[in-house]
Design brief:
This protein is an all-alpha fold and 207 residues long. It has one domain (23-204). The chain is built from nine helices and no strands. The chain has helices spanning 3-18, 22-59, 61-67, 69-92, 97-106, 108-120, 124-136, 143-168, 171-204. The longest helix is centred in the N-terminal third of the chain and has 38 residues, at 22-59. The chain is globular, with a radius of gyration of 18 Å. The chain starts with a helix and ends with a helix. The model has no long low-confidence stretch (mean pLDDT 78).
Length: 207
Amino acid sequence: MTLSAWLSLALVCLLGAMSPGPSLAVVVRHSLSGGTRAGVICAFAHGVGIFLWAALMVSGLGALLLAQPTWFDGLRALGAGFLLYLGCRALMAQRGASANTEEANRDGGKAAREGLVIALSNPKVAVFFAALFSQFIQPNATLSAQLFIATTAAVIDALWYTVVAVLLSRPAWSGRFMQHGGLLDRGFGVILIVLSAAVLWSIWQPL
């Protein structure tokens, strides 16, 4: 792959990572509630999920999934269910901001799990990579070239969300969160529930 082609690929991946959605909401919530460590853990776990999706598409199994509407809708429904779970949990959170931060810092595993699952349960990632690979992967491309593209997408995704985590966990932001932690929790809960409802509506609306 030439440098110009790689730069084009990197720009497309960056724009895809920057697009707002449930992944951004989850990373932001962990960054504000748990600080830099929790946000970065969530960001890198999300990058691992992106790599797994990319590898799936490279292997051809992803194309098989997209070709089966029932399977694809089932995955979308699972993703919507996970968003609904996260949203309800955020709405029901009843704890002080300082206690919330201490618990989040201790439990990096929660940030990792949610970052990974939110990436794996988002079928839009599969559609994105299907379009991406059709433009940047040649029919005679080697496996190493395919994995290089998948790794590029994953690293850019992880780095973007790491930047988000570091910026939002700065004292200026975290101080505001400590004053309005309950309100932000409820706000994130509403956002995730609305996103879940939108996915479910897109699945069953044609029926």
